[in-house]
Specification:
The complex is a heterodimer of chains A (about 325) and B (about 425).
Chain A (H helix, E strand, L loop, with lengths): L5 H4 L12 H13 L5 E4 L6 H13 L7 E5 L6 H13 L9 E6 L6 H13 L4 E7 L7 H6 L1 E4 L5 H14 L3 E2 L1 H11 L3 H14 L2 E2 L1 H11 L4 H9 L3 H14 L4 H14 L4 H20 L3 H21 L1
Parallel strand pairs in A: 1-4, 1-5, 2-3, 3-4, 6-7
Helix pairs in contact in A: 2-3, 4-5, 8-9, 8-10, 9-10, 11-12, 11-15, 12-15, 13-14, 14-15
Chain B lengths: L4 H4 L12 H12 L10 E5 L6 H11 L3 E6 L6 H12 L9 E6 L12 H10 L5 E5 L8 H4 L2 E5 L5 H15 L2 E2 L1 H11 L3 H12 L4 E2 L1 H5 L8 H11 L4 H10 L4 H15 L3 H24 L5 H15 L15 H8 L1 H18 L3 H7 L1 H10 L1 H11 L3 H8 L2 H11 L1
Parallel strand pairs in B: 1-4, 1-5, 2-3, 3-4, 6-7
Helix pairs in contact in B: 4-5, 7-8, 7-9, 8-9, 9-11, 11-12, 11-13, 12-15, 13-14, 14-15, 17-18, 19-20, 20-22, 21-22
The chains are: A alpha/beta (about 325), B alpha/beta (about 425).
C-alpha cells in the first residue's frame, strides 16, 4: 500500500487517461491539437473530473513545463474582488514565453466567487484574452454571471456511470492489493453516488481498516465520515422533539464537522428508507429539495437544516393524526 | 401608532433632562461664556456611559438658547477629508441669520481603525481653530488616542442618574400615555436599568404599551438579568408581535447587531412556538432570512438587509397562529454562539489542515476540511502506518496529527514512525 491520498495518486495525468466524459475529452484533445483554447466553463457535480480535465489539458498542451504556464486558484479560499484585481490580473497580463502565446488560469470552485469579483473578472478576461485563457470549474454554472458565461465555451460534466465507476475502483484496489468484494463496491456506489473522489476516499479509508473491503466496512466508514446519527435525528424530529433534534444536528455540524450537504443527502436517502406512510415520502422529498436548494444559496447550514427539522416535526404531528 | 418611546418622549428642554444637573450647568455656563468672546477652551468634551442623555443635553441646550444646531456622528464623518469638509461650519462665527451656532461631534469613540486615519488629528485641528462652540461626545474620555485632543477641551462628566430621577421620567411618560402605573413597578424598571435611561424607557414600552395600567406583578417576574434586559424586550416584541410593523420596529430597539439578533431569535423561537405548524412557519421564515444573508454576501449588496429583517421579525411574528402562551418561559442566550467560540480553535485547526490538503489535492482548503478530513480521521485512527505515510505526504506537523488522531498514544506511535 502506498502512502498518498489515492485520489491524487490515480488522478489521470493526460487527456488520454481520462476514463469517462468522452465527448468532452474529444473536444479538449482537439484544442490541444490546434494549440488553441477558448475560455471555458466546466460545470458539473463534485468528483466528476472537472479539475482533472483542466489539469490534463494544460499538461498535454505545455508538456513537462506546464507548471510555468498554468495557475490554479481556488475561489472558495480566495473569493474576493482583491484577488481578481491583483493575483489574477498580474498573471493574466504577463506574456507567456513558450511557443504558445497564452497561459491558462484554472479557477476552481468559481461559483463561490462574489459577483463583484466576477464582474471584475469579466473585464480581465476580455482585455487579456491574447495572453491568458480561463477555465472556470463550478458545480452550478447558474452561479456564474451571464456575461462570463457568454464569453466561455460550456462543458457539462456528469456523474460517472456505474460501469466506469466500478472498473475504476476495481483497478485501483488491484494495484493497492486490496480485496474489494462486489457488495463492498455496491455499497460505495450507493453511498457516494457517482462522485469519484468521494468513492476513492471511501475505498482508501475502508482499506485502512481491514483487508477485505465489504459492505459492512463501507457503511461503518461512511457512518463516521458522514453523519452517524442522521437516522436518530430524523426519528427524534418525527417524534416531535424539535429542540433535541436541533441539538443533535448542532453536534454533528460543530463537533464533528460534518458538511450540511452530506447530511441532507443522507436525510433524502433515509426518508425513502424509513417507516413513513408512502404519500408522506413524496411530500417530504419536496421539502428536502427546497431546503437543499436554499442551502446552496444560504449562508448557514444549521439554520437551513433546522428549518427542515421543523418541517419534519410538523409532518410527524400530522401523520399521527391520520 | 407605533413609535419608540425613547424618541417620542425625548426631553425637549434642559429642565426635562434626567439628572446630571451640575454637568448641565457647567455646560450651559461654558456656552454662555461665548457671549463675551471666544473662551480659552473652545470645545466641551462630554463623556459617560450610554443612554444617560449626553446627546439630548446638547440638543435641548441649543433649543433653549435659540442656537443653530449642527450635528455629525461618527458614521457621517470618518476620514480626515470628511472632517475637514465639515470644519468650515465650525470655523465661522455664527449662522447666516446672525444667531450663534453649536457644533456637535457625536460618537467620537467611533473613530477607529485604518479607515478613520487622521480623523482624530483633524478633529483636534477643528477645535484649535473654532469660532463657534464645539461639543464632543464619547463614552470613554481617557482613551489614549484622545490625549492631545483632551488638552484643548473642557471635560464634563455625565453620570448615571439616580433611581428616583429615572422614575420621575418614567412617571411622566406613563402620564402622557395614559397609563396608571404603580410606583413599585416603575421603581423596579428603573433599578434594573442601572442608570441607562434609554433602556429603561424601552423596557417600559415593551411592558406597558397598549395597557391601561401597570402593576408590580406585571414586571416583578422579569428578574434581574444585567445587560440582557433590552434584548429580552426586543425578543418579546418579535416573537409575540401582533403586527408586522411593531415586530420590525423592534430591531431599532435592539442594542445588538442584526446577526446577533438573528441568533437570539433562532435560539428562542422553538420554546415559544409550541404548535408544530407555527414552529415550521417561523423556522421557514428564519431560513429565508438566512437565504437573503447569503445573497447579501454573494452580491455584496447590503440593501438586501431589509428582507433579512422582514423575515426574521415580521415573518416570525406572523407564524404564531395556534400556539398558546405557556406562562413564563425564560429567554436563553444563544448557545450556538457559545459553542461557536468554543469550537473556534477547532475550526482554525481544521482549516490549517485543509490548507495542507489543498497543496496536494486540487481542492479548496474549506472543502478539504469538510470532505477529506473526515476520511483522514478514520485512516489515522485505524492504520498507523498509512497515517504516518499520509502525514509525511501532506507535510502535517505533530499538532495536526494529534488533532486528527485524537489520542496521545496513537499520535506517539505515528510520530515514532515519522522520525
Amino acid at each position: 500500500m502506498s502512502f498518498e491520498m489515492w485520489a491524487e495518486k490515480y488522478r489521470p495525468k493526460s487527456l488520454v487517461d481520462i476514463v469517462d466524459q468522452k465527448e468532452i475529452v474529444e473536444r479538449l484533445k482537439s484544442f490541444v491539437k490546434s494549440r488553441n483554447v477558448p475560455h471555458c466553463i466546466f460545470a458539473g457535480p463534485p468528483g466528476t473530473g472537472k479539475t482533472t480535465a483542466a489539469m490534463c489539458l494544460a499538461r498535454d498542451l505545455y508538456g513537462q513545463v506546464y507548471r510555468e504556464h498554468v495557475m490554479e486558484l481556488n475561489a472558495s479560499d480566495e473569493r474576493g474582488i482583491d484577488v481578481v484585481r491583483e493575483t489574477v490580473k498580474t498573471f493574466a497580463r504577463s506574456k507567456s514565453v513558450g511557443e504558445i502565446p497564452f497561459r491558462i488560469m484554472i479557477l476552481d470552485e468559481a461559483d463561490n466567487m462574489t459577483s463583484d469579483a466576477q464582474q471584475a473578472l469579466r473585464r480581465t478576461m476580455e482585455r487579456f484574452t491574447e495572453t491568458c485563457r480561463f477555465i472556470m470549474c463550478a458545480n452550478y454554472s447558474g452561479k456564474i454571471i451571464e456575461p462570463i458565461q457568454s464569453r466561455c465555451a460550456p462543458f457539462r460534466f456528469y456523474y460517472l456511470p456505474r460501469e466506469e465507476h466500478d472498473r475504476c475502483l476495481k483497478q485501483m484496489a488491484e494495484k493497492e492489493k486490496v480485496k474489494l468484494s462486489d457488495e463492498g463496491l455496491e455499497a460505495i456506489f450507493e453511498v457516494c453516488g457517482g462522485d469519484l473522489r468521494r468513492a476513492i476516499n471511501t475505498l482508501q479509508a475502508a482499506a485502512s481498516l481491514s483487508k477485505p473491503v465489504d459492505a459492512k466496512v463501507v457503511y461503518s466508514i461512511t457512518g463516521k465520515a458522514s453523519p452517524a446519527d442522521v437516522q436518530k435525528m430524523l426519528k427524534t424530529a418525527i417524534s416531535g422533539d424539535f429542540l433535541e433534534a436541533r441539538k443533535q444536528l448542532r453536534d454533528m455540524i460543530q463537533k464533528y464537522g460534518v458538511a450540511g450537504s452530506d447530511i441532507i443527502r443522507q436525510i433524502h436517502t433515509e426518508i425513502f428508507r424509513g417507516e413513513i406512510p408512502e404519500v408522506w415520502k413524496v411530500k417530504l422529498a419536496d421539502v428536502v429539495g427546497e431546503i437543499d436548494f436554499r442551502l446552496v444559496e444560504g449562508s448557514d447550514e444549521e439554520v437551513q437544516l433546522s428549518a427542515l427539522l421543523a418541517r419534519l416535526v410538523e409532518a410527524g404531528c400530522d401523520i399521527k393524526k391520520t | 401608532m407605533y413609535a419608540a418611546w425613547s424618541v417620542k418622549h425625548k426631553p425637549q428642554t434642559l429642565a426635562e433632562i434626567v439628572g446630571n444637573k451640575e454637568a448641565i450647568e457647567q455646560l450651559a455656563n461654558w456656552v454662555k461664556s461665548w457671549e463675551t468672546g471666544v473662551p480659552k477652551k473652545k470645545a466641551a468634551f462630554i463623556y459617560g456611559p450610554p443612554g444617560i442623555g449626553k446627546t439630548v443635553a446638547v440638543e435641548t441646550l441649543a433649543h433653549d438658547f435659540h442656537m443653530e444646531f449642527v450635528e455629525k456622528n461618527a458614521s457621517d464623518y470618518r476620514t480626515e477629508d470628511a472632517v475637514n469638509r465639515f470644519a468650515g461650519l465650525a470655523s465661522q462665527y455664527g449662522s447666516l441669520f446672525g444667531g450663534r451656532r453649536i457644533v456637535l461631534l457625536d460618537e467620537l469613540d467611533g473613530l477607529t481603525g485604518k479607515a478613520d486615519k487622521g480623523g482624530v488629528k483633524a478633529t483636534t485641528d477643528i477645535v484649535k481653530n473654532a469660532q463657534s462652540p464645539i461639543v464632543l461626545i464619547s463614552n470613554a474620555a481617557y482613551d489614549p488616542r484622545f490625549t492631545n485632543l483632551r488638552s484643548y477641551c473642557l471635560l464634563i462628566e455625565f453620570k448615571k442618574p439616580a433611581v428616583s430621577e429615572v422614575m420621575k421620567h418614567l412617571t411622566r411618560i406613563c402620564q402622557s400615555e395614559g397609563i396608571a402605573a404603580e410606583e413599585g413597578a416603575l421603581k423596579f424598571i428603573a433599578q434594573r436599568s442601572e442608570g441607562d435611561v434609554r433602556s429603561a424607557v424601552n423596557d417600559l414600552q415593551a411592558l406597558a404599551q397598549g395597557k391601561k395600567s401597570l402593576s408590580y406583578s406585571d414586571v416583578s417576574w422579569l428578574g434581574y438579568r444585567d445587560r440582557q434586559e433590552s434584548i429580552f424586550n426586543v425578543l418579546r416584541m418579535i416573537i409575540y408581535g401582533k403586527s408586522c410593523v411593531s415586530a420590525k420596529q423592534a430591531v431599532n430597539m435592539a442594542d445588538v447587531d442584526i446577526d446577533m439578533l438573528f441568533e437570539w431569535i433562532y435560539e428562542n423561537v422553538p420554546a415559544h412556538l409550541t404548535d408544530p405548524h407555527d414552529l415550521a412557519m417561523a423556522m421557514d421564515a428564519l431560513s429565508k432570512a438566512d437565504v437573503y444573508r447569503g445573497r447579501i454576501r454573494a452580491a455584496q449588496d447590503w440593501s438586501f438587509t431589509r428582507y433579512v429583517i422582514d423575515y426574521m421579525t415580521a415573518g416570525v411574528a406572523m407564524a404564531r397562529q395556534k400556539s398558546q402562551a405557556q406562562g413564563w418561559i425564560p429567554f436563553r442566550f444563544p448557545t450556538r454562539i457559545q459553542m461557536l467560540s468554543r469550537s473556534k480553535v477547532d475550526r482554525a485547526m481544521q482549516l490549517s489542515i485543509g490548507r495542507k490538503i489543498k497543496r496536494r489535492c486540487h481542492i479548496s482548503a474549506v472543502r478539504a476540511s469538510k470532505q477529506v478530513l473526515p476520511y483522514l480521521r478514520i485512516i489515522f485512527k485505524n492504520n498507523v502506518e498509512m497515517a504516518a505515510g499520509l502525514a509525511r505526504w501532506l507535510d502535517l506537523d505533530e499538532e495536526m496529527v494529534g488533532y486528527i488522531v485524537g489520542s496521545e498514544e496513537k499520535a506517539g506511535e505515528i510520530a515514532k514512525l515519522l522520525s
